[in-house]
Amino acid sequence: MTQLTADLNRSIDIGGRQADSRLLMAPMAGLTHVAFRHLAAGYGGYGLMFTEMCSAKALPQENPRVSPVFQWRPSELPNLVCQIFGSDPDTMVRAARRIESEGFFGVDVNMGCCVAAICKQGAGAALLRQPDRAADIVAALRGAVDIPVTVKFRTGWQDDPDLAVNMARRLADAGADALTFHPRVAPDLRARPPKWDYIRAVKEAVDIPVFGNGEVFSEKDCRAMLDKTGCHGVALGRMALARPWIFAQWTGGFVPDEETYPKCAHRMLDLLAHYYESVNALRRFRKWIVYFAANFVYGHQFSSKVRRAKDMDAARREIDAFFASDAARGSVPNRNLFQ
């Protein structure tokens, strides 16, 4: 067992509940849906997984049997956090109470999404401009539910670590049980590397667990983030999409072989077909394949062919054809393919 494996496998208390691993799956809109979580769960190794972001306004009326985002397997609830977005404390409370009643591990507030449609509602990263409202939301949730309340947030709208530190303190004082911090400014998607030293500043400013997020693509990266920032754990985003077994690989010694990759792609197709009707299943597969294809030397060609597939059967044929050829892989995914 490596030291990294030992460190990641230490359980951690979050609001009185235990996560068995310090390696989390970060929430990603349109990607961490029930089918992908089911795929990753088959490998194991994660501490917590997060849903894709759900509208707090819509969530109390959502029907899990037909909702594209508020859907889950009962077996995953003990390790599943539901992420919500919104700007009104009362609306957020109603959503959180529904989440608690369904049995989720916790509720997470999105304060990082900088998509215009979300920010125009005063939600997501827009809350970083309104620290009082952000704190009011967390305080309202903390007073309304008994499950853990967590927040995923960015540096702010300016490149100033003090903004992140002050926001972290406000959120912790309001009752947040843990924070996931992505150290980039809100308008900056991935044009510049995240500033990991900001994670250390945030971690040292609060007395609750802080999980780092951003540009972790290898065990070396993971080790470096833990050592350089002192963060309590790591939340994986794009790397989890590219290699859903990465949690098991880093925490349990899972070793992928030649069959792991084609089996993973076919399993993703099968699960999407199980949970969604064909059009939406194909749309979600096209979105995911960009990340998975980054594993391969000719991943851009593979991704392009699959994304042109007219139906799920055609996508399956493209997968078979690719793996029947020389599907050479890189040691780490080519992140340029999914910037």
UniProtKB/TrEMBL annotation:
Coiled coil: none annotated. Residues 25-318 form the DUS-like FMN-binding domain. Keywords: Flavoprotein, FMN, Nucleotide-binding, Oxidoreductase, tRNA processing. Its cofactor is FMN. InterPro entries: Aldolase_TIM, DUS-like_FMN-bd, DUS_fam. Its EC number is 1.3.1.-. It comes from the Bacteria. FMN binds at P27, M28, A29, Q83, K152, H182, G237, R238. Pfam families: Dus (PF01207). One of its GO terms (molecular function) is RNA binding. It is an enzyme of class 1 (oxidoreductase). The active site is at C113 (proton donor). Gene3D superfamilies: Aldolase class I. Catalyzes the synthesis of 5,6-dihydrouridine (D), a modified base found in the D-loop of most tRNAs, via the reduction of the C5-C6 double bond in target uridines. Belongs to the dus family. This is tRNA-dihydrouridine synthase.
